[in-house]
Amino acid sequence: MGTIPNPVDGEDIHEEVREETRVGDKTSATGTGKTPGKKRRTASGSASQAKNFLSSPGASLVAIVIAALWTLPTIGLLVTSFREQRDINNTGWWTSFTNPGSYTLENYQAALRPGDSASMVDYFVNSIVIVLPAVLLPLLLASLAAYAFAWIDFPGRNWLFVAVFALQIVPLQVALVPLLRLYTDAGVEGTYWTVWISHTIFALPLAVFLIHNFMKEIPASLMEAARVDGAGHVRIFFQLLMPLIGPALASFGIFQFLWVWNDLLVSLVFLGGTPDVAPITVRIAELSGSRGSAWHVLSAGAFISMIVPVAVFLGLQRYFVRGLLAGGLKG
Amino acid sequence: MSTPEKLGLMLFAIAIFAVVFIGILLLAARFSGRTGERIQAASFVLPTLLFILVGLIYPALLTIRDSFKEDAGGGFGLANYVDIFTQEQNLIVLRNTALWVILVPVLATGIGLLYALVVDRTPWEKVAKALVFLPMAISMVGASIIWKFVYEYKPSFRDQIGVLNAVLKTVGIEPKQFLLDVPMNTFYLIIVMVWIQAGFAMTILSAAIKAIPDDIIEASQLDGVNPVQRFRYVTMPAIRPAVVVVLTTIGIGTLKVFDIVRTMTGGQYETSIIANEFYDAFFRYNRPGLAAAFAVLLFLLVIPIVTYNVIQMRKDA
């Protein structure tokens, strides 16, 4: 995080989320209006006076019911992924708790065994190969463009920026088929290049907008000082700005990472389903259609695909939430 | 391709991107003065503009053109749009899309708000929020598999392995094939999207609730309002802008969602929505014109949602 104070460094999640909203308010694509009031409550400040209908037993019951509904489905499939195929198809997963000895790692072993019909290895590798360039490329391009929109004076700057901003509302579906033809004409159909470039294109309007907002917050005096010292834009960009907006880049990077990792449509359109290039989401969706009752394969495969985003979520929650609040939903 | 080859290609691609763009920049940096400034601005902005122009604007224009191209015969006209608004199968698609776009935002926002209120400032708030938020991090494909298993059906003489049918059987109701149960199956799919989006609504609304200034709360307490009145007259007006944002953001996201329908039913049994029909029209029915028309319709439907958002924001500003 470097040397500048990071506004979202608070350990307390309340503090943190509040800051996230602030960021979100300023940057949301459609504009979130204003956070009412300037005086913010401290997390502990009004806890004592917060006696309301929310602390009643009824409220606790509502909380528990919602939490259960939001957790149980996942637990069910997770437990299932550790059961034998025969057990899965004959008894409910909840019955396995009375017979703990019946759990097995076989489903995961099959999924991770190269060459096995249930193998996810190739698809998992494809997901990784797809996601890294599809995050780095838009980050680099959008940072450059955002810098120019924020700090270089050139003709047409304002309306170009508004145009890029407005393009966020275009659903990617309107571009898919002509893009597919363009890739075919260029002879790169069915290769990673199609998804690397497509994910970059679809990420750019939002990325430019978000990163621009962070860049604008850098004090103009700092920029002027650097200019007076004789630094050119390229040097200012790499030596001064990149370190300063590191946290902003991280939050957009994680957001894009999850979006690409979890994507189905773009990969399905440009890559099809071959183990050579298709990511793990495509494979699982395909298995769901063709072997819908092969729960031993589906459950283990689904969790293998979820490990990465869940690890990212748990490890980098702060950035993740910020990216999400700032970006809303893309697609 | 073997795994090392794939990883090698990836590193190669990253290196190429880096070398090309940094090379352009270093070249641009050599110019100085007014011209230099212009050249540098161009080298910063043009790559992005080029990607957007060639990859987004030009394809979008082609799609608009193609949407008027008849799939049989190749003449130009409104045939594809007429198909969308007259064929019974497509009317079902439109009806389903409307159900999704109305129900998902309302339910996800309602549940997210309720949950944000009931866990607000409780000792377990952090964990409670993470539980509901987690579905947001996983793919919609993963979520679809999770819920397909919840809805799993076995003939009634067998043990049920899907939790919902097990509950039905326990209370003496005949197990049913949820995903085949027209027209209720659309609602069962909608539940999955609500399950995914509620965490998003909760996170933003919770932050908005916490941003309400203390003095307003205190004043309302001095006035002796009860909690329900406080919610109605203090909390709700204060978080209204956030609620609008959440509703519209989820609405736009829902309009374009394809993964859930695709993974759970493939759009069969009258569950298809526009985003899925776009894909099927092109890849399954070989009707590029109809697919283009569906894509354009998707775009047109985003506009009223965005407009509503802008109008509401103006009102609050």
UniProtKB/TrEMBL annotation, chain A:
Q: What is its main location?
A: membrane
Keywords assigned by UniProt, alphabetized: Cell membrane, Membrane, Transmembrane, Transmembrane helix, Transport
InterPro entries in UniProt = MetI-like, MetI-like_sf
Chain intervals for the UniProt region annotation (Disordered): 1-53
Quote the biased-composition stretches of kind Polar residues, using this chain's numbering: 43-53
Q: Where is the composition biased (Basic and acidic residues)?
A: 15-25
Q: Where in the cell is it found?
A: Cell membrane
GO CC, sorted alphabetically, is:
plasma membrane
Give the way it sits in the membrane.
Multi-pass membrane protein
Q: Where are the transmembrane segments?
A: 61-82, 123-152, 159-180, 192-215, 236-261, 294-316
GO biological process entries: transmembrane transport
> Which part of the chain is the ABC transmembrane type-1 domain?
124-316
Mind telling me which Gene3D superfamilies this protein's record contains? Answer: MetI-like
One short Pfam name that applies is: BPD_transp_1
Q: What family does the database annotate?
A: Belongs to the binding-protein-dependent transport system permease family.
Per its record, how is this protein called by name?
Answer: Carbohydrate ABC transporter membrane protein 2 (CUT1 family)
Organism, by scientific name, is: Marihabitans asiaticum
Automatic annotation (TrEMBL), chain B:
Name the membrane topology term.
Answer: Multi-pass membrane protein
Of the GO CC terms on this record, one is: plasma membrane
Q: Where in the cell is it found?
A: Cell membrane
Q: Does the keyword Kinase apply?
A: no
- Cite the entry's keywords alphabetically: Cell membrane, Membrane, Transmembrane, Transmembrane helix, Transport
**Chain ranges of the ABC transmembrane type-1 domain:** 94-309
Decide whether keyword Membrane is in the record: yes
Any Pfam family hit: BPD_transp_1
The Gene Ontology biological process annotation of the record reads:
transmembrane transport
The record's listing under SUPFAM superfamilies reads: MetI-like
Ranges annotated as spanning the membrane: 6-29, 41-61, 98-118, 130-150, 187-209, 238-258, 290-311
Similarity comment: family membership: Belongs to the binding-protein-dependent transport system permease family.
Name this polypeptide is given:
Carbohydrate ABC transporter membrane protein 1 (CUT1 family)
Species, as recorded: Marihabitans asiaticum
